[in-house]
Amino acid sequence: MSILHDLSATIEARKEADPDSSWTAKLLAKGPEKCAEKFGEEAVEAIIEAVKGDRASLTAEAADVLYHLLVMLAARNVALDDVLNELERRQGVSGIAEKAARPKG
Ligand SMILES: N=c1c2ncn([C@@H]3O[C@H](COP(=O)(O)OP(=O)(O)OP(=O)(O)O)[C@@H](O)[C@H]3O)c2ncn1[C@@H]1O[C@H](COP(=O)(O)O)[C@@H](O)[C@H]1O
């Protein structure tokens, strides 16, 4: 299992947890709209660091973005594997497009 799968499983378990026991449980208890809002805030913070060009800060903000993306997906019951499968499907599609675009002969 990847770290993303591990984190996703932890976040899923926090849906049943007491909101006072964990940041994730508290955020999930506030509902999908709040989770989406936090994801947006973290994405903006990552954009700011990307524009500034501070690689260490961008790395930290990117980790926040991934965590908050997983929380937002969990809040709407979208499985991480469904997102990963969609990426794999697109790889296949773009592979076909690349082949079709190659000159013949
Ligand atoms: N990866 C993370 C992670 N990244 C960021 N955060 C939290 O996300 C919050 C976002 O930061 P902000 O500055 O926006 O938070 P804030 O200002 O306190 O919040 P607001 O008042 O703005 O709503 C911080 O409080 C961080 O602790 C995370 N909290 C948890 N995790 C992972 O989730 C797992 C479960 O954590 P618990 O929530 O503690 O159960 C942990 O093992 C970690 O692996």
Give the SSE layout.
Elements: H1 3-14, H2 23-29, H3 32-52, H4 55-75, H5 80-101
Helix pairs in contact: 1-4, 3-4
The structure holds phosphoribosyl ATP (PRT).
What small ligands are held by the chains? Answer: phosphoribosyl ATP
| Helical run tally | 5
> Would you list the SSEs in sequence order as H and E?
HHHHH
Which second-level CATH architecture applies? Answer: Orthogonal Bundle
* Poorly predicted spans: none
Helix content: over 70%
Pfam families: PRA-PH
GO molecular function, one term: ATP binding
EC number: 3.6.1.31
Protein name: Phosphoribosyl-ATP pyrophosphatase
Summarize the structure.
The chain is mainly alpha-helical. It has helices spanning 3-14, 23-29, 32-52, 55-75, 80-101. It has a single domain (3-101), classed as Helix Hairpins (Orthogonal Bundle), CATH 1.10.287.1080.
Question: Explain this structure to me?
Answer:
The protein is mostly helical and 105 residues long. It has helices at residues 3-14, 23-29, 32-52, 55-75, 80-101. It has a single domain (3-101), classed as Helix Hairpins. The chain is built from five helices and no strands. The longest helix is centred in the C-terminal third of the chain and has 22 residues, at 80-101. It is globular and about 65 Å long. The mean pLDDT is 93. The site of phosphoribosyl ATP (PRT) has 8 residues, from α1, α2 and α4.
